[in-house]
From TrEMBL:
Gene3D superfamilies: Spore Coat Polysaccharide Biosynthesis Protein SpsA, Chain A. GO terms for biological process: protein N-linked glycosylation. This is Glycosyltransferase 2-like domain-containing protein. It comes from Candidatus Gottesmanbacteria bacterium RIFCSPHIGHO2_02_FULL_40_13. Residues 7-164 form the Glycosyltransferase 2-like domain. Pfam families: Glycos_transf_2.
Length: 237
């Protein structure tokens, strides 16, 4: 495989305790990767209530190829991160790096064959052990996605790898500002006949508390699923 140029986008919210250390770990990892020629890291800060935004500015002054954007919602931050990216391939990951680059290794091996690749905790080959409350939330998201939209895979809430030029035309069609944005991107890709797949991961527990309120975000996700389904039905008439 030829070496690629990669934009790494990382949504961050209320991350002042871990931000500097974690970004440095990302920077060191990508600096040493044989499969990656050039890289940039874009911190997508969204509505932090601590000093995360201030730290983003500080980190960008210290580390080469690191920049940041500010947005008010997770989905908006992710979308703006893709728009800001300058390299042909884009990889979205969480600051806690939940899959420890196992996902990325698979994605890099598949990027010549697929336009959009998701890391899926519900993939048949995935190992997913976590507390029952979090696992139920993931399965609920997956069930709703599969039943309502018939995507070729059900978990859209993991990391994402994409070919930027194929994704850019889809962004004006993705209007969700919340976590549904990742599902909406997959849907728009499917309807536009992009080559989409998912890869399995090992995920055996949280290393820290989630930044998302599962109940609140779950309700928002259900509402957006219903709105999207209504839109699809209306357009098909």
């Amino acid at each position: 495989m030829k070496r690629i140029d990669l934009s790494v986008i990382i949504p961050v919210k209320n991350e002042e305790a871990l931000l500097e250390k974690s970004v440095l770990q990302f920077w060191n990892y990508f600096s040493k990767q044989d499969k990656i020629r050039n890289f940039e890291i874009i911190l997508c800060e969204n509505a932090s209530e601590d000093h995360t935004l201030i730290l983003c500015r500080k980190i960008c002054r210290k580390l080469l190829n690191v920049s940041y954007i500010h947005a008010d919602k997770f989905g908006t931050a992710l979308k703006n991160g893709i728009l800001k990216a300058v390299f042909p391939y884009v990889y979205s990951n969480g600051l806690d790096n939940p899959f420890k680059y196992e996902d990325l290794e698979q994605m890099l091996s598949l990027c010549a064959k697929f336009d959009l690749i998701y890391a899926s905790k519900t993939h048949p080959q995935s190992v997913y052990r976590i507390n029952i409350f979090r696992k139920t939330a993931t399965l609920m998201h997956s069930y709703l996605t599969k039943i309502f939209f018939k995507l070729p895979f059900s978990d859209t809430q993991g990391t994402i790898f994409m070919e930027r030029k194929k994704i850019l035309p889809l962004l004006p069609l993705c209007n969700s500002s919340g976590i549904f944005f990742q599902t909406q991107l997959a849907l728009r890709g499917m309807y536009n006949r992009l080559r989409i797949t998912s890869v399995p991961v090992h995920y055996t527990g949280l290393t820290r508390r989630s930044k998302f309120n599962i109940i609140v975000e779950g309700i928002k996700y259900i509402v957006e699923v219903l709105k999207e389904k209504y839109k699809i039905i209306h357009l098909s008439r």
